[in-house]
Design a protein that fits this description.
By secondary structure, this protein is mainly alpha-helical. It has 14 helices and two strands, in the order βααααααααααβαααα. It has two domains: about 210 residues, Hypothetical protein af1432, CATH 1.10.3210.10; about 70 residues. It has a two-stranded antiparallel ribbon with strand order 1-2. Bound molecules: fe (ii) ion (3 copies).
């Protein structure tokens, strides 16, 4: 069956951005901005259609392991706000994120892109990997991600724009390769680049840049993808951790009991794995509130 991965990824970007806002107090649309910048750089480097699509997917999913990490380790989310102060804690979300997406249907089979999305070109990052040993896609995500976290690309003033350009120039050959820095400088010399990163233009800009990709996929593979999503949903709250996976497991038992055919069973499992999707948009202060909800 035909499956539109772009639509799916766009939904994932909303889900992840909601989570980062709630867990980390991040500004909205972070993964969308990272993906837009990555997409512009992938065009600049004339990546193939398959590579562009994969980078687009990896960029949206780059921090998918973050909330699970916070939940599993019991670390306060605050420490993730400044990676320069808490270097060692960042490794876990890179590893968790990499493992989470192993079943995702990437087209080039790229590995270690999420794992190394915080590495530095000169080897001073968390894993100590340097230069060409860091996949180009990971290097691109690293630049877009770090700079958006530090200086928020959506901020509308020239002073902030200068700060971003200075930071990136200063780290040329250190955090980022000369090629990537030169490419970024070229792309950002156009005012439209900065406008595209601002709300509400970022939605449209990302849609325009998205590599249209409908893939032929078996329904079982769609279930593998929605399982990635259900992990993200379960990461939302420590009180319901494993809720979706547990419910999906029971849905499978019920489908067998009622003798669903294989196709209906998989459809049922997909629905079960996504049933609590709306929780992502609800702040944890409400979801985890002890006792009854009040009007305010
Ligand atoms: Fe990250
Ligand atoms: Fe990020
Ligand atoms: Fe539920």
């Amino acid at each position: 069956m035909k499956f539109n991965l772009n639509n799916f990824l766009s939904a994932v970007s909303f889900a992840l951005d909601f989570l980062e806002i709630d867990f980390l107090g991040a500004t909205s649309n972070h993964s969308k901005r990272v993906t837009y910048i990555a997409q512009r750089l992938s065009e600049y480097f004339k990546m193939s259609d398959e590579e562009q699509f994969d980078l687009y997917s990896f960029a949206i999913l780059h921090d998918n392991g973050l909330c699970e990490d916070v939940l599993l380790t019991g670390r306060p989310a605050e420490i993730f706000k400044d990676k320069h102060k808490h270097l060692e804690t960042y490794i876990d979300h890179c590893n968790i994120g990499e493992e989470n997406v192993t079943s995702f249907p990437f087209l080039t089979g790229g590995r270690n892109i999420i794992r190394y999305h915080h590495e530095h070109f000169d080897g001073s990052g968390f894993f100590g990997v340097a230069g060409a040993d860091i996949p180009l896609m990971a290097q691109i995500i690293s630049l877009a991600d770090t700079v958006d976290n530090l200086y928020h690309f959506e901020t509308r003033n020239l002073e902030n724009r200068e700060k971003i350009i200075n930071f990136i120039s200063l780290h040329k050959g250190r955090y980022y390769s000369s090629e990537i820095v030169d490419a970024f400088m070229d792309i950002c010399s156009h005012t439209s680049f900065w406008l595209d990163l601002q709300e509400p233009f970022i939605y449209e800009a990302l849609l325009n840049k998205s590599p249209i990709k409908e893939i032929d996929i078996h329904i079982d593979e769609i279930f593998l993808i929605t399982k990635v999503f259900s992990k993200i949903i379960d990461s939302k709250s420590k009180f319901t951790y494993r809720h979706t996976s547990g419910l999906t497991e029971k849905a499978g038992i019920m489908a067998d009991f009622y003798q669903f055919n294989q196709n209906s069973k998989t459809q049922f499992l997909i629905a079960a794995s996504l049933h609590d999707l709306g929780k992502l948009a609800i702040p944890n202060a409400i979801l985890d509130k002890p006792g009854k909800l009040t009007k305010r």
